[in-house]
Design goal:
- The chain is mainly α and about 180 residues long.
- The protein has two domains: about 70 residues, no CATH class; about 70 residues, Orthogonal Bundle (Arc Repressor Mutant, subunit A), CATH 1.10.10.10.
- Helices cover about 70% and strands about 0% of the residues.
Length: about 180
């Protein structure tokens, strides 16, 4: 269960906070909260256990991110151990450029264009359809689990997933023709 939860946290975590907050820390903190509230689940188990755990993990992640933004200094102001801020140094820039998947400028341009096309296509979809795709493909939830999260029937979740995938394919096809 832990690897699956870590994958969900990694997918859902704010990219700016991900530099400072490890998914395993979120999971560990979540497990403390889950243990504290386990009796609450056993008194009224209205959803499958994994769906309940997922919700506790996501809420813990949100709380930790909020606390992180509220209590921490700006990422741009962080200093290395030697007292320098190497985030923008030339050598670090070269390293990041060379290690960026060894992508040529033309490949980087193509990749950037594809990302923009995907983003525009996803923006044209409803939030529910985007969530269904995310839960199925990145969180690896089953139709039954997606149905529980969205409070719809498993058949409706399956139908929504099929329609969302078809809609995304249709939107992306516009860019290839």
């Amino acid at each position: 269960m832990r690897p699956r939860l870590e994958r969900i946290v990694t997918f859902r975590m704010d990219r700016n906070v991900a530099q400072r907050l490890d998914p395993s820390d979120v999971i560990q903190e979540s497990f403390f909260e889950i243990e504290r509230r386990l009796e609450e689940y056993h008194r009224d188990p209205t959803v499958p256990f994994f769906v309940w755990v997922r919700q506790r993990v996501l809420q813990t992640m949100i709380d930790m991110q909020r606390g992180h933004w509220r209590d921490k200094r700006s990422v741009g102001r962080e200093q290395d151990m030697d007292g320098t801020n190497n985030q923008g140094s030339t050598s670090m820039s070269i390293v990041h450029w060379m290690m960026d998947d060894m992508t040529s400028p033309s490949q980087a341009a193509i990749k950037h264009e594809e990302v923009e096309q995907l983003q525009r296509s996803l923006d044209q979809m409803s939030e529910t359809d985007r969530e269904i795709l995310a839960m199925r493909h990145f969180e690896h939830l089953s139709n039954a689990e997606v149905a529980q999260v969205l409070a719809i029937s498993p058949t409706a979740a399956s139908n929504r997933y099929i329609r969302a995938a078809a809609r995304l394919a249709e939107l992306l096809k516009r860019y290839t023709t």
